[in-house]
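User: Some background: our group keeps a shared notebook of sequences we're curious about, and every so often someone picks one and asks for a predicted structure to add to the entry. Today it's my turn. The entry only has the sequence so far, pasted here. Could you supply the structure so I can complete it?
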Amino acid sequence: MLNLPVKVSARHNGKSLHLDNAVETMTLIGPDDEPLGTVSWDAVIDFIHNASRTTRPQRLPRNYSRSPLAATLRYTTPGSRNSAGVTCEIGGGGIFIETSTPPPIGTILTLELALPDDPANPISAQGQVAWVRAEEQRHVLYPGMGVQFTEISDESRARIVKIVKSLDHSRSGK
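Assistant: Of course. Here's the predicted structure to add to the notebook entry:
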């Protein structure tokens, strides 16, 4: 593990980066030693790699569009810790789950997601924690975790994609 204090950047002076090579994560630590967020080395490497291209997108490309949606879900960690939560955003590739106690990046979760189109028929899937927002930011970005689907049926993914398209269509007024 390595702690690197921020010294040159005036906006972030007093913060530090905590590099954990055992789990390959980078955590931003605030002036009061509180974690402000964690990203995987994969995400940093992908960002740097994409930033070096002359025509780069602002974000990494996604295979599926996503949309804001509040839906209830249950998830289980490998240690059989059961939790209930609410999605904040959903897409065919994954979801953002609001939680003040997200498990570490890389954790595999078993998911059961009740969607508004048919709440009695929940979607079952597996996902991996891809990134974590440890605390609320700007009073609009809730703490939680981005979860990438690793196992999901084609039928379930198609159902999510259909809901996202329907939400986008209704929000655009077309």
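Suggested note for the entry: Residues 52-60 have pLDDT under 50 and may be disordered. Helices lie at 41-51, 154-172.
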